[in-house]
Design goal:
Layout: E1 2-3, E2 6-11, E3 14-17, E4 28-34, E5 40-45, E6 48-53, E7 56-60, E8 71-76, E9 82-86, E10 89-94, E11 97-101, E12 114-117, E13 122-127, E14 130-135, H1 136-144, E15 152-154
Antiparallel strand pairs: 1-2, 2-3, 4-5, 5-6, 6-7, 8-9, 9-10, 10-11, 12-13, 13-14, 14-15
């Protein structure tokens, strides 16, 4: 369980806190998910991302390629790829490393507070500008460098720019 006071686990029916001796140093935990291999991922404000597997804790932050140490949301897509919404953009964890996108690469809002995989080929993002969606193929093309901009469908208040719609 991710809370403002730390990450907790169930040990024989008792809630036990991961603590500094477990290398959990983030203060406010905002998101939690389990990957396909059974590892728990916890996102923290200012603490980055923690991967917990078999009581071993690894911390990932900006120095490991994460877009920002302030992780606001986590989502595992239908292919098992982990997406981390941060205060400075989006990070994708795949094949043991991070790739990132921000305003420069075409995200509508650098603060990615929520991520949802709709199971139809798109990721939906919630940020300060509103709610928008992007095709995962477009995200992959941008991350791979085969395109330099994202086609964004904006559904929130008022976009910074007009974006064409796709079906």
């Amino acid at each position: 369980m991710a809370t403002e006071n730390g990450v907790y686990r169930d040990v024989s029916g008792n809630l036990t806190s991961f603590a500094k001796q477990d290398n959990i140093t983030g203060e406010c935990f905002s998101s939690l998910l389990m990957d396909r291999k059974g590892a728990i991922w916890a996102g923290a404000e200012g603490g980055g991302l923690y991967r917990i597997k078999n009581a071993k804790v690894e911390q990932c932050g900006k120095s490991e390629g994460l877009r920002s140490d302030s992780v606001r949301s986590l989502q595992k897509d239908d292919e098992g790829i982990i997406w981390a919404g941060t205060a400075k953009g989006l990070s994708q964890y795949h094949d043991g490393g991070f790739r990132t996108l921000g305003l420069k690469e075409g995200l509508e809002d650098e603060r990615v507070n929520q991520i949802l995989d709709d199971g139809l080929g798109c990721l939906w993002f919630g940020g300060h500008s509103g709610i928008y969606r992007v095709k995962k193929n477009d995200l992959e093309d941008c991350l791979n460098g085969t395109t330099r901009s994202l086609l964004i469908v904006f559904t929130g208040a008022k976009p910074r720019r007009e974006c064409p719609r796709f079906e």
